[in-house]
Design the sequence.
């Protein structure tokens, strides 16, 4: 077993909400749970008792809970959680109504706006009143074409308060990308920004909003808020009204509609790089209970915490961040480039706002190291107690960087789940040590396992990440999939009755988890399965490499590993650098991992949420179509990979 990088003290462990839950279970259920492994096993063996405890300990606001916790517990899918319950998601996020800061909204232009819980409640009341006046009722969709600002959260809470369904994407989506998403779900109201700023450049979105307004016939109202300009001219946008005018009413109270536990709350979208995005529907109760568990127990979030996650409204981490309001915490929002106006901007924000839980992507942490940032020496991070990372596997070297250059005494939680479950399968654990390169634990109440191709459970071997029992945040289904065929195909085709998530993973000797990449991007040279993350970890150790992308190319009745690298400005991939990359990969993995071809690229294609698109590049290299380039942030980058001479020999 490996030596931990960080170990919580006995006092730290005993002060956590997770430890308190463990003692509660021991007292109430006559058990002797001693550590997290015991607690996790109990939560799986006693699913109904565990999720009832989460409800009770989190003080869920509801008209009623009912006696039944889980109907049809052996149905996967098909189980129903809390079938008698009636509640409202927004009521749980707005139960705190004092002058404590709820939202601190910042952006790369240096602007800062603060809303207290009382002010947030009033703003939501006004927007909910206006939405009702527009004819929005329960089940209708309200869409947001929005930056990560207070407007997005007010919009979501107002929609949820009246039982409507919220769906958002960030304003860097092109017209076709928006239409591919919102065109499927036919929203009644669109809330949109007049523009945004990225890397110092102002980008006006009003022309796109006008196109969207004309193209989606279901829209009765387009509400435009000022974000780029103080008083934008919206006269060219059909059905448009300004935010100020729309919220100009006397409403001060919210009548929260009480809905079933599985009432639709969110529609989120798959990346859409292999076809039209899947519209994934998540429930109000399932999202609430799962996020309460992850925030309170796995992150130890409390009402005096300041929670930050660098995200856009097109990534499910925004939905996860917003739920921090249910703990009464202060949320810090940031819109813009994380390196503008300078690379240290987010760490300055952490110091300025006293951020206690700082969330970001693995790529951001790697980029901070490449920029030689030392936040712990350059900023006062006294308040910081946890760093969360997701989006891709966090490299072992990034663990070292965090503890060396950010802070020695903090919980570094690499977390993994996704849009499909709007939450996590594996995440942080405040009562366990942090081991280099590992996600600390499988989530409570989540029967996560790793299977081989025959469905045999594996330990310390790589296989398919699965979940073998129902959990509250399973999707209700997909939009326009009445028979559920696409839903079943997405998650249950490989192992009937068991959720297959599409991650290539390994449960470690320490009972942690390592994600080796996406299953559909696994390389297979000579019949040996290799996760792309294993190669990225080594390649990005090389000083001149900023980032990389790896695919398997069909070649001579086998598969060869092809690596594309983006280098530091002014650098050229010569034989010396190629040899260094190959030596580094071979020395730390195996000869099978060594790329047969290494090619320099100017840019690496990625989704709008920042994830690299291995499958799209693989398709282009093999002359296959990429069905939905509008899902990419930089679709022009794909052109480089067409008919590459180096890959024809």
Sequence:
């Amino acid at each position: 077993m490996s030596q931990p990088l960080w170990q919580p003290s006995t006092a730290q462990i005993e002060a956590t909400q997770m430890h308190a839950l463990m003692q509660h279970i021991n007292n109430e259920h006559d058990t002797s749970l001693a550590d997290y492994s015991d607690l996790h096993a109990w939560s799986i063996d006693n699913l109904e008792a565990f999720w009832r405890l989460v409800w009770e300990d989190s003080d869920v606001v509801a008209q009623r809970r009912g006696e039944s916790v889980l109907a049809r517990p052996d149905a996967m899918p098909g189980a129903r959680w809390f079938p008698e319950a009636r509640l409202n998601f927004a009521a749980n996020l707005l139960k705190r109504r004092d002058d404590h800061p709820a939202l601190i909204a910042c952006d790369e232009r240096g602007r800062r706006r603060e809303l207290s819980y009382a002010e947030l409640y009033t703003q939501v009341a006004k927007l909910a009143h206006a939405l009702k006046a527009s004819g929005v009722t329960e089940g209708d969709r309200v869409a947001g074409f929005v930056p990560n600002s207070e407007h997005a959260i007010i919009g979501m809470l107002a929609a949820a308060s009246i039982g409507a369904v919220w769906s958002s994407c960030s304003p860097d989506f092109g017209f076709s990308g928006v239409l591919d998403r919102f065109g499927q779900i036919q929203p009644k109201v669109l809330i949109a920004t007049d523009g945004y700023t990225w890397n110092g450049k102002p980008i006006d979105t009003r022309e796109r909003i006008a196109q969207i307004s004309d193209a989606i016939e279901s829209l009765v109202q387009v509400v435009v808020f000022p974000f780029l300009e103080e008083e934008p001219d919206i006269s060219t946008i059909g059905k448009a009204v300004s935010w100020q005018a729309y919220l100009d009413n006397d409403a001060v109270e919210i009548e929260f509609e009480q809905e079933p536990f599985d009432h639709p709350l969110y529609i989120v979208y798959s990346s859409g790089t292999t076809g039209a995005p899947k519209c994934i529907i998540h429930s109000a109760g399932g999202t609430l209970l799962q996020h309460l568990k992850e925030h309170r127990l796995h992150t130890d979030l409390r009402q005096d915490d300041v929670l930050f996650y660098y995200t856009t409204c097109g990534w499910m981490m925004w939905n996860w961040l917003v739920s921090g309001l249910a703990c009464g915490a202060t949320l810090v929002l940031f819109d813009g480039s994380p390196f503008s106006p300078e690379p240290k901007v987010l760490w300055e924000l952490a110091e300025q706002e006293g951020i206690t839980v700082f969330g970001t992507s693995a790529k951001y942490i790697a980029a901070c190291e490449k920029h030689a940032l030392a936040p712990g020496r350059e900023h006062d991070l006294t308040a910081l107690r946890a760093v969360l990372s997701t989006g891709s596997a966090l490299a072992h070297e990034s663990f070292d960087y965090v503890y060396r250059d950010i802070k020695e005494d903090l919980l570094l939680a690499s977390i993994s789940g996704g849009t499909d479950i709007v939450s996590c399968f594996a995440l942080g654990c405040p009562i366990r040590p942090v081991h280099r390169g590992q996600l600390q634990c499988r989530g409570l109440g989540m029967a996560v396992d790793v299977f081989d191709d025959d469905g045999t459970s594996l330990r310390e071997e790589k296989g398919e990440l699965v979940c073998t029992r129902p959990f509250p945040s399973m999707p209700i289904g997909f939009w326009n999939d009445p028979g559920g065929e696409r839903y079943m195909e997405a998650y249950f085709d490989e192992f009937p009755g068991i959720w297959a998530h599409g991650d290539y993973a390994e449960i470690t000797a320490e009972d942690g988890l390592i994600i080796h990449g996406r299953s559909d991007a696994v390389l297979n040279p000579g019949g040996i399965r290799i996760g792309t993350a294993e190669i990225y970890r080594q390649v990005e150790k090389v000083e001149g490499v900023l980032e990389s992308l790896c695919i398997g190319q069909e070649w001579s009745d086998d598969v060869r590993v092809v690596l594309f690298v983006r280098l530091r400005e002014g650098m050229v991939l010569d034989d010396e650098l190629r040899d260094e990359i190959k030596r580094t990969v071979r020395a730390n993995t195996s000869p099978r991992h060594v790329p047969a071809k290494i090619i320099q690229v100017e840019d690496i294609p990625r989704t709008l949420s920042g994830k690299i698109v291995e499958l799209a590049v693989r398709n282009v290299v093999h002359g296959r179509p990429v069905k939905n380039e509008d899902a990419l942030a930089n679709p022009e980058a794909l052109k480089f990979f067409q008919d590459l001479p180096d890959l024809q020999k």
